[in-house]
Each structure stands twice: as structure tokens, then as C-alpha cells.
Specification:
By secondary structure, this protein is of the alpha/beta class. Helices cover 53% and strands 15% of the residues. Strands 3-4-5 form a 3-stranded parallel β-sheet, with helices on both faces. Strands 1-2 form a two-stranded parallel ribbon.
């Protein structure tokens, strides 16, 4: 949010906080002093709808990244830990996201410049979107069901 506060492009910025978010007071204090209008959403029940309505998502390297790829939404990730950082290597390789690394090592300037570069480059965002969509065929549930059914056959 501090990086986006400095963005010199006219954009709508929505901040979505999940159940595990621990810095509500810090965020409220920031938003109270912010010079840009931020929209804050908590307890979101339809995150995919918000994702699909967005040109760019900034998130950690958690499960939301899978949703971004499956929905064809370009993203920037800022990882919370080494496990997320390792997971982002696959998404980075497929160019569905730009991974900035571990959050404690990412400057607001780096975030700002990366966001700005993607927002002014619709062709790159479109390519990232297509790359994400290509990773998912929508048949994962059927494959998991087949694995379970076949494993049960081997037990009987």
C-alpha cells in the first residue's frame, strides 16, 4: 500500500485482507493518512470475482497464485517465507507472475516500478494471462477422482 500510494497513474486500488492478516491497526492508520483513495475489503466471499475484475494483482506466494493463473490474471508476488519463494519459481518460469522475492527484502521503490511497468504494458499482462490459462485445463478434479478410485481398486 505504501508503494501504491506513490503511483502516479490513475487507478482504482482495492486491498483485500484475509482471515490470517495480522496488521489491521497498522493498515487502518495508513489508510486514514493516505492521500489516494483505497478500497478495503475484508471477509471476501467471492475472491475469484474480484480477481477477474482486476488488471493486476499483488499478493504473497500462497494459494492465491494458483487462482490467478487459472483465472488468467497477471500478478506480482511478494513472498512471506522460503517455501513460498521456492513455489514461485515454477510460476516465474511459466511467466504468469513477476516474483519480487521475500517481502523483507523488497523496497517500496521496486514494488512501485514493477507495478507501473506492468500497468503501462497491456501486451505483457495479456501474455501473462495467457500463460496462466495454459497451465490449467479444468480437469484436475477428474484426475484426482480417478487417482482415488484407482487406489481403492488396488486395496480391494
Amino acid at each position: 500500500a505504501q508503494a501504491l500510494e506513490k503511483l502516479d497513474l490513475k487507478v482504482n486500488i482495492t486491498i483485500v485482507v484475509g482471515i490470517a492478516y495480522a496488521y489491521h491497526k497498522d493498515l487502518a492508520d495508513f489508510l486514514e493518512q493516505a492521500t489516494k483513495p483505497f478500497t478495503l475489503k475484508k471477509d471476501v466471499v467471492n475472491l475469484p470475482e474480484l480477481i477477474m475484475d482486476s488488471d493486476l494483482i499483488i499478493c504473497s506466494g500462497g494459494r492465491t497464485v494458483y487462482e490467478l493463473a487459472a483465472l488468467g490474471s497477471p500478478g506480482i508476488t511478494i513472498c512471506q517465507n522460503e517455501r513460498e519463494l521456492k513455489r514461485m519459481e515454477t510460476f516465474k518460469k511459466h511467466e504468469t507472475i513477476i516474483n519480487l522475492g521475500l517481502g523483507n527484502g523488497v523496497s517500496t521503490e521496486t514494488i512501485l516500478e514493477t507495478v507501473k511497468a506492468l500497468l503501462i504494458d497491456p501486451d505483457r499482462r495479456k501474455q501473462m494471462s495467457q500463460n496462466g490459462l495454459a497451465l490449467f485445463d479444468g480437469n484436475g478434479t477428474s484426475r484426482v477422482a480417478d487417482i482415488i478410485i484407482n487406489s481403492q481398486k488396488n486395496i480391494i
